[in-house]
Amino acid sequence: MTEFYRSLSQQKQNMSKAESLRQAQLKLLKDPNYQHPFYWSPFILIGHWL
Questions:
Q1: Which is more confidently placed, 38 or 12?
Q2: Which of 8, 17, 35, 44 is least enclosed, having the fewest CB within 10 Å?
Q3: Which of 39, 15, 13, 14 is nearest to 26 (CA)?
Q4: Global pTM exceeds 0.85
Q5: In which domain, by residue range, is 29 found?
């Protein structure tokens, strides 16, 4: 979640909230300590996420 909010606050290349979450999940997948879905799969966007 830290990475998700960091990218939102910096407005990296005008990323949408959905893309920010996707990028944060992919970053966790690349880290051997956090590859298991337990760490990244429970986070979803609810509401207006464009």
A1: 38
A2: 44
A3: 39
A4: no
A5: 2-40
Q: Is the dihedral of CA 31, 37, 42, 48 positive or negative?
A: positive
What's the structural domain count of the chain? 1
What is the per-residue pLDDT for 2?
Answer: 85
Here the tokens at position 16 are 């949408």
Mean pLDDT in residue range 22-33? 89
Three state DSSP letters for the chain: CHHHHHHHHHCHHHCCHHHHHHHHHHHHHHCHHHCCHHHHCCCCCCCCCC
Instruction: Indicate whether 48 belongs to any domain.
Output: no
Query: Within a domain: residue 7?
Result: yes
Q: Decide if 47 is inside a domain.
A: no
